Amino acid sequence: MPELPDLPALIAELDARTAERGDLDRLEAAEEIADELTALGARLVGYYVEQARTRGNSWADIGGHLGISRQAAQQRYTPARFQLTLGDLISTGALSRLTDRTRTTLVRAEEHAKRLGSATVEPRHVLLAMLDDGDTLAAQALARLNVDIAGLRAALDPVAAVDTLDTLNPTDPAAAPNDAASSRDAAPHVTAPPLGTPARRLLEAALAQALKLNHNYIGTEHLLLAVASVHTDPTAQLLADRGAGYDRAREAVHAVIDEYLRNR
User: What per-residue confidence (pLDDT) applies to 179?
Assistant: First the structure.
């Protein structure tokens, strides 16, 4: 096992990075590094908790091993699990039921989150990613409901909507508002944002939707139903406003699945 960096090594690294800066700037940089190390440590713990859960260990098993209750173990480690990225979850085996297309959709959702400067992947990024591939069963279900895909995309992706408007109606750059550009410039340079709590619950809901249909996999159609099922989420409301609330989405998904099976 490689040795972890000790304090002198961290000090040397920070001093090298801030050689031309003052003492207070170095203090600020030290705070930033400490935050990064804390987040990385939480992610490390979350990874092994997720892996243990994926391999069949219950919260009672985890708590018993540590000498604490099931509830205490769940409360202690759930926040760490929500620090994991899509890649982390795939590596633990937690997402083994995803189809290739669903996995690709989630990768695109991650890319949308980064592009829009979001700290986490959220349901709106997942729905936006579903709209990127018109061949998925989710997209076919929305088409069956005559959903205005362009309008839905604009509601989910205001940055792209502004860019499109600027292309169609060019203005003097000095006079034009630059909110979209500012949003992109301010986006943090992260390798991959973690899945936020709503997105993690979305994956759990997608599995529940798959099991309701007696499916042993999670497809984009299950993701769509999961998004639509959380009535309090703004993303679900966007679907409902366009005639794709949960009940109608479920009927459309059943129809496209039946059609797919007939044409195989």
Answer: 40
